[in-house]
Amino acid sequence: MAERNDTGKEGEAIARKYLTDREYEILHSNWHWHHYELDIVAVKEGELVVVEVKTRAEDFLVDPEVAIDRGKIRRIVSAADAYVRFFNIDLPVRFDVMILIGRQGNYRVEHIEDAFYAPCH
Predict the structure, then answer these.
(1) Strand, coil or helix: 70
(2) What separation in angstroms does the CA of 53 have from each of 30, 49, 58, 86, 90?
(3) Per-residue pLDDT at 1
(4) What is the CATH number of domain 2-116?
(5) How far is Cα 34 from Cα 38, in angstroms, rounded to an integer?
(6) DSSP string spanning 98-116?
(7) Distance from C-alpha of 33 to C-alpha of 78, rounded to nearest angstrom
(8) Are the C-beta atoms of residues 41 and 48 closer than 8 Å to each other?
(9) pLDDT digits over 43-96, tens only?
(10) Domain range list for the chain
């Protein structure tokens, strides 16, 4: 479990650097609301960007994007809604996913913009 947590933290640090290098302004990392969490919240070009980061070793059996199912999307959207209300933000919200695959400092980064939309109720 500790190795997995370290891999996740390293992946999120790489994702933050990747985003700041592309002129995203990072507002929060690992923002918690009840038992939900937003990995990265940033702003770019007038949009609030909520980024879910998935980091995996190359030999991982399940693709990282499979871990972002309907339930996970609902939790991310709920947390993003709470974030917008808590900070009184009046910007359009975009949901991105960053996938990092590799080992210790040597990751392939894939940034998927508009990876999903908030489901309608």
Answers:
(1) helix
(2) 10, 12, 16, 22, 24
(3) 43
(4) 3.40.1350.10
(5) 11
(6) EEEEEETTEEEEEEEEEEE
(7) 9
(8) yes
(9) 999 999 999 999 887 665 555 566 688 899 999 999 999 999 999 999 999 999
(10) 2-116
Q: How far apart are CA 58 and CA 8, in angstroms?
A: 14
Give the pLDDT band of residue 111 (cuts 50, 70, 90). Answer: very high
The answer to whether the beta carbons of residues 38 and 76 sit under 8 Å apart is: yes
Structure tokens at 106: 């040597």
Helix (H) or strand (E) holding 49: strand 47-56
CB-based burial, 6-42: b 16+ in 10 Å, e otherwise: ebbebbbebbbebbeeeebebbebebebeebebbbbb
Specify the pTM: 0.88
